[in-house]
């Protein structure tokens, strides 16, 4: 027999490498063979797959799961390296069928039960020869029997033939085993031979079972296996007898069948007649239903049409009423005079025209009528009437106002008496509306020019976040041009608004006393007084200031009119404030002072809008500054999230720089604003510092000592000037002293624990027993005292040195060490002095190092 690829050890090693590369763990390749061709999923595409390699792998059993068997299909990659292409689980194998259409007998199909629900053709393979086919099928059956304990259904191949082939080829393989493989090869051959015999027996047993069934059938007729002709003749005779019996029974029952058939024919005829009648009745009923539905539909349509026609007529009547132009109104609008006797008719005609135009607009008119030709033509006609009347009225008013102004200037008292008071409201409103647009445009353009012409840093300063150098560089940038721009805005427009308010009150004939414009001297200044008023004040005709009780009843009306005159201009002031805040938030301080200075100069009630504008600006500046303070507090609180911070926190020195800059910007009465900011910032700083210190109890006191000391050092000069900072300076000083005391006490207690613990026990007993009885207590005898003194004071130089080094090691700032060490020595001497006094009082004549000697020891450090 020719050598098969199943015996190729190199192929098996390549398959094992491909399986291991695919990520499968614990799988061993037990069999591998090349395939001539295969058809699977490519069958639907009408093309053959490339040559493949089939490999049987086994995953050995573990405690958690049983052994598993797989059929792997491997293909050659572009580099002639095997790689996995398909994986089948042998536990799903249900049928092995050899294709009968293939004359060579080398083509077979493997049926898996998990592929039935999928639109995938079962895998079909063609081997190189019959031996390769038998090798593969026998290996699959062997693995199913050995691992899965069952055999799939085999179709198209004789079991006995396969078993004989397996027995013959197994012997051949055993004979071909080389001696160089050793004992391991022999054991493997013996194992394969046992499994082969088992499978052979199973295949032969299936054939024997079929033969035994045939013999049992023959034993029924007491015949041997060789009497096939007699057995066939016997079966034919019994079949003829059975057919004769069936024919006789049919002949016996023929009369009954005839009677039943006649009854069925009669019943069928009756049923056919009834079915014909029902079809006729159903047809007539259907026609009646259709007629009734048609009548109802026509009636409903006519009724709906009647209702719609009635509604349409009503709507058209209403629309025609809207579209009709009264002759008297048309005459007044196109050619009527503007004499006083005709003025009421003109006003009535204008009101009608306004209402007619609005009634043809979408909110007041159904949208379906807007594009009607009649509506569009009537709207154009009304617009033409409006344009004609406006031209005539404008020409009349132009001429009238020219003559009126000339007359008013020549004789104002007569003009005020003869003016119709009822017309002032609409006149004032029109004046306010027109001038408001002009003032808002001027303010917007001026604000835009200010922002464009002011050179400011592009990157705003970050005060309490980031690196130290970044904060310092941001704080050194000069941003005075920002506050100068805001001051220029107020300098230009506040007097302008005051003058406009004064002129409006005078020109629109408000019955209020005269207003003195800013900077105009009053009577007192003319008489040589030293208290000139530079603000806008109410004055009587003689030039004297009036009390609030003397103001006119129309002052409230005047302020409402001023609100309408100047409303909207505040948005441009707000825009300048927001722009300045984005460049340098600290400039809110100087802007707040500038606003306060202007606010204190506006006392006139007639300029109420200007005062409200300044109040709003002050509130907005305060709000923006509060926002900056809140953001600064958030920057400080972010330090709390950092892990294990040591040394001086970054925001401590930066706050000193921030406070110095804030003090430079103070103008007017901005001290309250700054003090509130100091209170919030320092409170957040101290709270965050405490939280950072508490995150690590070992270094808590060190963090507090260094940072409180840095706070005092950086704010020493400012605390001498600013009262609020002085208060926080003292708070930091107290917290610093408390932290120093705690840290020094812990150092002393760590180094001399037994000494001062003994002293504390004695002090506690002095409250309950007499002093002379204490030396006789357990653990407090003189022997115990000597033992404590020996362990604590025998190497006092080393102990003091260790405490010195421990304190020096814990501090990150060398500047604080001398003062802290002096505090530590003083605290230790005080504690030791108390201990010596206790020993002298309780343990009389007991020798102990004196305080002076201890002081000399400490002096060496």
General description of the model:
The chain is an alpha+beta fold and 861 residues long. Among the domains are: 9-170, Roll (PH-domain like), CATH 2.30.29.90; 327-406, no CATH class; 433-456 and 480-513 and 555-622, no CATH class; 640-859, no CATH class. The chain contains 29 helices and 11 strands. It has helices at 9-21, 130-148, 159-175, 182-220, 228-252, 254-323, 327-335, 343-359, 367-370, 373-410, 412-418, 424-453, 468-475, 480-507, 523-526, 555-566, 570-583, 587-600, 608-637, 651-665, 671-694, 700-714, 716-719, 723-751, 753-765, 782-793, 796-810, 817-842, 851-859; strands at 27-34, 37-39, 53-59, 68-76, 82-89, 93-98, 107-112, 124-126, 153-155, 514-516, 537-539. The strands form 3 sheets. It has a 5-stranded mixed sheet, with no helix packed on it. It has a 4-stranded antiparallel sheet with strand order 1-3-4-5, sandwiched between helices. Mean pLDDT is 77; it is low at 41-48, 171-195, 466-475 and 514-550.
